[in-house]
Write a structure and sequence with these properties.
single chain; about 950 residues; alpha+beta; Apoptosis, Tumor Necrosis Factor Receptor Associated Protein 2, Chain A; Cathepsin B, Chain A; 5-stranded antiparallel β-sheet; 45 strands; about 30% strand
């Protein structure tokens, strides 16, 4: 907005600080006034100026007036006043005052200046009688003025109000004073609104897109990406032949795009390679947990490659846990490897550690075991006073430190976040925390490389990361898709946590001003620190060269980009084209189902039809000529029929496309002759009057012309569910047959032939055949468990009317497994839900795939291979018997004991077999000699009477062994 018309930028009332009526300082004392009202923001000050504007005849002022110009920080400024309020011509009872940039036209393109300022209106004779408001702003060409639309009510200026003994406007005169503190914008983005901000242009780096709640992942990925040795190692993993589910390939893709792209990079391929679904991207995980998972997946892929051992070299250090006696020479110790260190920020009594060094000191401080807690040092030494602790043997080149800011609060019975102040240094000497056997003459100095920050509480929040890519570079903030420079203060002080401090005083949690107890905690603080060893920094952070980047990766991504651009271009040009599908006699001949082909059946894949992308304005005759050429015909050998959707929901040929008009376009054919759909469907009729039908011999069979006396039954395919018999002697007119209708025929069969067809489970007439097509459904069968003997996944075309036993029979044939020893489970969202009980499954396949009333059918069923009949499992009732036996008893003894507790049926074998079951399958059958103590306590032992046929089989086997 032109500043001559009115200020373009105002501070909303909720953000502007309210006018403070203070009389303890005078507007004539700029230092005292600034100390009282302008907070120390911790930002270097370039200049500070005070400018007073005496205003006589206030009531006679025009609607808008500006002060004379003054200079601050090398920039010209003035005060912009709306005496009756800035209300765009409407009545207003508020005074509006703004700080206005003086002459923006003199500034270069893209100029900006950051200023903290206060505006005060005071009595012309008493500087301690004033009203003021303060703000801070980034002045630009788009936002040249900033201030307060509702500075103060006009009526309060003409008489003493509140605690003031004098009016602000006295004798129609007042003074407005501006206090302008011009600040040094060290990063170039201070108070930036980030409209049209270009991260790559401003910083040389790009961010990562947030999929929903993946900011924690983005932070860690940026840290790993800028650990250049790690990036090189990832590039060294061979991925030329990897598929889209490859984690190394997906990570290489992200790293390469971060390296080369000008825009923020997506991580969808990476999360998909983890097996995440879209919902997982909206669930926030822990940085440490994600880091471990990623390192494990990469380390297994690095074995046997040039990158083998890279993760251990970069992140693995060693520590020793020990227990050392104080009074005797005895020590028990064990060395272990760590990939990160978790540091407490509070001691056991709840007192916070002030610094990172204190946390390290607490980590290596041993615990004394004495009194009732003495250590037993073996038979030689007995109970001894001892020290138990952990000490570091060596630190890795890249040290990941996790600050334990989340803990369980037993008093509140909940997880909480610790926001106490915890300072960390830019340089850290770790030699004091090494074991005395370590080489302490070496350089164990580390420099801060990255700070992962969590803002929020235990229930949720946001992660971002601050990184210094090279020892000589600036610090940058990587906040999802935006990268900005930051100051050292923003890295350290702003992320130490603890109370909010302004002007050196703690902001009271109760909001009653400065000072006092119970400060307002900051919820943004460091959660993970990354330090790089000084002596290894040159190697760890060495620049990435072109030779370090896999050539196949570049080629692959460039190819994918070309395909992406092509699809994008096609999408943009989609309105210029239409899709034309061709149905031929071959299509009809191979099709099994209603109509000429399958178009929109949700349960079955559509027919594979010749499809053409045709310009809407292409003349129809040109299209027909090209189509004939592609299919090997002359244009005069074919004609095309338009397919339409009839009212009975069938799709049939309706009208021949006229060929007399050379201006007829494909768009007109679709819009005027076809159904209202995006696709144009055409039936190709081949005209060859010279051709006579002849028998055709082939190895697949013989197509024959039936004799005139062959008895036939004729049916008309009207629509799904309506297949009507026809009278053979009726004419087409009498039968109401028109263009596009379908007639099917059947040779009349003898009773013997019908019985033979029924044995083969074939359909006896077209009505039954078409009924199957009406009710057919493609069901996908998956193994219920991964550890089953058969884990085959397959699809079966079933009728929705099939019973449980019919379905089990088809699945049993496919699996070569007894149908009655199969168990099925329906699914919900691709996961197993409820076991389908055969005894209760009085319905059909349609009922089995309907997991619940409100959900759409899920055509996925899970199967299990059982060792016993499903009838037996569902009809037999379990009885439980508990009794005590000595642990040295055998399973024979258990069976004998059990036989005295149960009642056997008449003509029983009176023998019992013992076994364990896992998910309906016999997991282990006991021979009888097993000892009870060898059976784990968590195993349930099942018992069953040995059937007569099993006993006969065992007797025969025993007889053969004796022979």
């Amino acid at each position: 907005m032109d500043p001559l018309e009115g200020p373009s930028n105002i501070i909303p009332d909720s953000l502007a600080s309210p006018p403070l009526e203070l009389e303890t300082v005078s507007v004539d004392d700029p230092e005292a006034f600034a100390a009282k009202h302008l907070s120390d923001l911790g930002i270097p000050v370039d200049d500070f100026k005070k400018h007073s504007w005496r205003i006589p005849n206030y009531r006679k002022l025009p609607k808008r007036v500006t002060s004379d110009t003054f200079t601050a920080g090398g920039h010209e400024w003035n005060i912009l006043l709306f005496p009756q309020g800035n209300s765009n011509g409407q009545a207003n009872d508020m005074v509006s005052i703004y700080l206005n940039y003086g002459d923006p036209k003199k500034q270069p393109e893209g100029w900006h200046v950051c200023a903290q300022f206060a505006l005060a209106i005071s009595n012309p004779h008493d500087g301690t009688c004033y009203i003021q408001s303060q703000a801070q702003h980034r002045f630009t060409n788009d936002e040249q003025d900033w201030g307060f639309t509702r500075f103060v009510e006009l009526r309060k200026l003409f008489s003493p109000a509140d605690s003031r003994v004098k009016p602000i406007i006295e004798n129609d005169e007042t003074i407005i004073t501006a206090y302008v503190r011009v600040l040094k914008d060290e990063t170039g983005v201070l108070w930036h609104n980030f409209v049209n901000y270009d991260s790559k242009k401003e910083t040389g780096y790009v961010g990562l897109k947030n999929q929903g709640a993946t900011c924690y992942m983005n932070s860690l990925l940026q840290s790993l990406f800028l650990t250049n040795y790690f990036r090189k190692a990832v590039y060294q993993i061979p991925t030329e032949h990897d598929g889209p589910d490859s984690v190394p390939l997906a990570l290489q893709r992200v790293f390469y795009q971060l390296q080369t792209s000008d825009q923020s990079v997506g991580t969808t391929e990476l999360t998909k390679s983890f097996g995440w679904k879209s919902l997982d991207a909206f669930l926030q995980h822990d940085v440490q947990e994600f880091s471990r998972v990623l390192q494990d997946k990469l380390e297994s892929k690095m074995k046997g490659t040039p990158a083998d051992g890279a993760i251990q070299y970069l992140f693995a250090g060693k520590y020793k846990t020990y227990l050392k006696c104080i009074n005797v020479d005895y020590e028990s110790s064990r060395e272990e490897t760590f990939l990160d260190v978790q540091l407490d920020i509070k001691d056991l009594q709840g007192r916070p550690f002030k610094t990172l060094q204190e946390s390290f000191e607490a980590y290596v401080t041993p615990e004394t075991m004495d009194g009732d807690n003495k250590y037993h040092a073996g038979d030689d030494h007995g109970l001894q006073d001892a020290r138990k602790g952990t000490i570091f043997m060596e630190f890795p080149p890249v040290l990941h430190l996790h600050l334990k800011r989340f803990e369980y609060d037993f008093q509140r019975d909940m997880q909480v976040k610790i926001n106490d102040r915890h300072e960390f240094p830019f340089e850290l000497d770790l030699a004091p925390y090494l074991d005395e056997s370590a080489d302490k003459t070496a350089n164990w100095n580390y420099r801060l490389h990255g700070v992962l920050v969590h803002s929020g509480d235990v229930h949720g929040g946001h992660y971002f990361v601050l990184i210094k890519p090279h020892p000589e570079s600036k610090w940058y903030k990587f906040d999802d898709d935006r990268v900005t420079p930051v100051t050292d203060r923003e890295v350290s002080e702003d992320n130490f946590g603890g109370e909010l401090i302004i002007n050196g005083a703690v902001v009271n949690g109760g909001g009653k001003g400065l000072g006092g107890k119970g400060g307002m905690k900051r919820f943004t603080n460091a959660y993970m620190l990354v330090y790089v060893r000084e002596s290894a920094a040159a190697d760890i952070l060495a620049p990435i060269t072109q030779a370090d980047t896999p050539t196949h990766l570049k080629s692959r991504l460039e190819r994918e980009q070309r395909e992406h651009d092509k699809k994008k271009r096609e999408k943009e040009e989609m309105h210029l084209y239409l899709t034309t599908k061709i149905i031929t006699d071959d299509t009809f001949r191979l099709h099994q189902g209603f109509d000429l082909a399958l178009f929109d059946d949700r349960t079955m894949p559509p027919s594979d039809l010749p499809t053409f992308r045709v310009a809407k304005q292409q003349p129809f005759l040109d299209f027909k000529s090209k189509l004939a050429q592609d299919l090997g015909y002359q244009p005069n050998q074919i004609r095309l029929w338009v397919l339409v959707n009839r009212q009975n929901k069938t799709v049939r040929p309706d009208t021949v496309v006229p060929e007399h008009d050379p201006t007829l376009t494909m768009e007109v054919v679709r819009d005027k002759m076809a159904s209202k759909a995006q696709d144009l469907k055409l039936y190709l009729e081949v005209l060859d009057p010279a051709h006579e039908a002849q028998p055709v011999e082939s190895k697949e069979g013989q197509l024959m012309i039936l004799s005139k006396n062959t008895p036939l039954k004729l049916y008309e395919e009207i629509k799904p569910g309506m297949i009507d018999p026809m009278k053979p002697k009726a004419t087409f007119l009498q039968s109401e047959i028109q263009d596009g209708d379908i007639i099917c025929f059947q040779i009349e069969l003898s009773d013997k032939e019908l019985v033979e067809l029924e044995k083969q489970r074939l359909y006896l007439d077209p009505v039954a055949f078409y009924d199957f097509f009406t009710n057919r459904v493609l069901v996908q069968f998956k193994p219920r468990y991964d550890d089953m003997a058969t884990t085959m996944e397959f699809d079966l075309l079933l009728s929705k009317k099939f019973t449980y036993d019919q379905m089990a029979s088809r699945v049993g044939e496919r699996l070569q497994h007894e149908p009655m020893k199969l168990r099925f489970t329906n699914s919900h969202q691709g996961n197993p839900k409820n076991v389908i009980r055969r005894a209760a499954a009085q319905g059909t396949v349609a009922d089995m795939i309907q997991s619940s009333y409100n959900n759409a059918p899920s055509n996925v069923l899970f199967y299990e291979l059982l060792d016993m009949s499903i009838v037996e499992i569902e009809t037999k009732r379990n009885g439980q018997h508990s009794f005590l036996m000595t642990k040295t008893s055998s399973m024979h003894d258990v069976a004998d004991k059990l036989s005295t507790l149960v009642t056997f049926s008449e003509n029983s074998t009176r023998k019992i077999k013992l076994f364990t079951i896992n998910d309906g399958r016999i997991q282990k059958q006991f021979a009888g000699g097993e000892i009870l103590r060898d059976v784990t306590d968590v195993e349930d032992i099942y018992a069953e009477e040995v059937h007569q046929d099993e006993q006969t089989h065992c007797d025969e086997k025993e007889a053969r062994l004796k022979a």
